[in-house]
Design goal:
Layout (H helix, E strand, L loop, with lengths): L2 E5 L2 E4 L4 E8 L7 E7 L6 E6 L6 E3 L7 E6 L4 E6 L8 E8 L2 H6 L5 E2 L3 E6 L1
Parallel strand pairs: 2-11
Antiparallel strand pairs: 1-3, 3-8, 4-5, 4-9, 5-6, 7-8, 9-10, 9-11
Length: 124
């Protein structure tokens, strides 16, 4: 059974940065495309970023381009989301996701595994 455990969330002022981590266990992370989603209070979960199995391809939702960077270290079975220039509208629970294809992450359909989420709060 694959498990995803996020960490790195917290409270930050607008304009600040956070780095989220997602530790993968139960199977090599290189077996999966990985991604990040977020869910703000009262809103549906939304796709944020995706990265291919070998890290060669990265995709971003328009609202985080040039601010967020997704990366992975398959030797460490960990995926990261570097978030810069954070704004109050980025406040949400951030979830890590694993799937057998990058496009599955991008579309958000048939995700194989989800983490439990980590709270990110950006104050104005």
């Amino acid at each position: 059974q694959v498990q995803l455990v996020e960490s790195g969330g917290g409270l930050v002022q607008a304009g600040g940065s956070l780095r989220l981590s997602c530790a993968v266990s139960g199977r090599a992370s290189s077996s999966y495309a990985m991604g990040w989603f977020r869910q703000a209070p009262g809103r549906a979960r939304e796709y944020v970023a995706a990265i291919s199995m070998n890290g060669g391809n990265r995709y971003y939702q328009d609202f985080v381009k040039d601010r967020f960077t997704i990366s992975r270290d398959n030797a460490m079975n960990t995926v990261y989301l570097q978030m810069d220039s954070l704004q109050p509208e980025d406040t949400a629970i951030y979830f890590c996701a694993a799937a057998l294809s990058t496009m599955t992450i991008v579309t958000g359909r048939s995700i194989d595994y989800w983490g439990q989420g980590t709270q990110v709060t950006v104050s104005s």
